[in-house]
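Could you please consider the sequence and fold appended to this message?
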Amino acid sequence: MKKIFVLFLSATLLVSCGGDGKKEEEKNDSLKIGNSAETTDEVEDEEGVTKVYLTGSDQMKFNKNQITVNAGDEVVLTFEHVGKLPKETMGHNFVLLKKGTNVQEFGQEALEYKENDYIPENTDAIIVHTKMLGGGEKTQITFQAPEKGNYDYICSFPGHVALMKGILTVK
């Protein structure tokens, strides 16, 4: 009986310690993920220069749907496809559209320009865009922030505009 009691007590302690440790470890991991996401999601401001880090994933999501910059600043946008799928099946880009552009109509028009990475030729709707990236690729563009207002940004790969979109707010 004494052996059973000791065995039961040992098992209880082992389970309770292991369970709490695992919960604490999971809690710490989620904090680490949150903190790392916060630092990569932050927009870095230097005098007259704003650095932005944006990612696209295999789940058809940007890591942020809101970016804020100052009017007239030089914006250095680093865009990375953090997924693994190739450009042909899950390509991503960053396309900043002028105010008043109908996002759905633009996305529909972009479908016709596969040979141009789904960027319509001779359009005046685009302020700036990156090239189309496949999994693991990264690019950087520099542009001057437009006048104050809200501007849509999207991924123009077919079907992505519904999920991969955000607002660039210029203050």
Notes: Residues 1-41 have pLDDT under 50 and may be disordered. The helical segments are 2-41, 87-90, 103-110. Residues 2-41 form the longest helix (40 residues). Strands lie at 44-46, 49-56, 66-69, 74-81, 95-97, 126-129, 138-144, 149-154, 165-170.
